[in-house]
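User: Hi! Is it possible to get a structure for several chains at once, not just one? Here's what I have:
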Amino acid sequence: MELLRVDAREPDPIVIGRAADELKRGGLVAFPTETVYGLGVNALDERAVERLYRVKRRPAVNPLIVHVADVPAARALVTRWPDAAERLANAFWPGPVTLVLPKRAHVPDLVTAGLPAVGVRVPAHPVALALLRACALPIAAPSANRSTELSPTRAEHVVKSLGDEIEMVLDAGATDVGIESAVIDLTGARPRLLRPGALDPRRIAEVAGELEFTRHDPDADAPRVSPGMMERHYAPRARLVVVGHRLGELARAHELAALVRARGGRVARLDFGGLRVEVDVARSFAAQDAEGVARVLYDTLHAFDEAQVALILVEAPPEGTEWLGVRDRLSRAAASE
Ligand code: AMP
Ligand code: MG
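Assistant: Yes, the chains can be modeled jointly so their relative placement is included. Here is the combined structure:
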């Protein structure tokens, strides 16, 4: 594996050219997007896509997001471009919003996990955009980690998780948004939010019209609205528990922490200033806004894993719609296998 440093704002065209050549050859190249690091392959190369699934140990039922350089490149992958797509693309691209639209026949079924629709987006990271332009290919890029694990927000996370099995990693430092894109299904009568991102869904609704949203409920036996929506996902190695502000929940957190520590395990706490359980490693969110918290969430959980804690207690985020993405990732990280 080659690890290449690249400037996040002005990526060196020679480095980008080498990464683009690797993609054209069918290689696996990890690169930064504004959300998390992606593991890229040529979306039209079935053998490369197949290898991507194998390396990530990703179940074949979980579709990939295809990254493109601009709107025309997105439209080349889909059979319909409704008004809502035009408005959303104008408002949020390049940016952390993925649109799901009926796919054209040349988009391999493997990419969409057999679904008739494909997820596309234009990422806002200069390195990702330079790479897309240099290779002139649609790049299928899920997060650059093994399936179900925490997504990488730094190149180091990628190297640790997948370094032995991929061709190249472009290192441009920490990503900015910190959690994965919002995914919006535009194939139905009304736009549907399949996965919330760091962006307040109200801002999306202002552009796309009222959004349908099926709240993810780990206990519900409801049909899955989107593949990859309900299983344990985005999870650190340690057990993670979200602690609400009810007395019962606080008492349980104290008990759990004491129990783990009595057995010699280390406990970490991540709080907004309102959770005071005794632990071995404590961090408070410096920012109190949803975007600021999303930015550092995975990075902090990665650091806890590095510190080999057995239990992570996270103070429940506030209730507002802008916290939907953070709450979604935490509830899935807390889901049992
Ligand atoms: P990841 O690339 O690991 O962030 O995961 C991509 C996620 O986007 C999937 O788990 C799905 O939830 C969603 N997604 C991608 N493509 C589609 C699609 N064609 N239809 C529905 N959901 C999709
Ligand atoms: Mg992922």
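The two ends are 31 Å apart (CA to CA). Residues 2-208 form a domain with the DHBP synthase fold (CATH 3.90.870.10).

User: Great, thank you!
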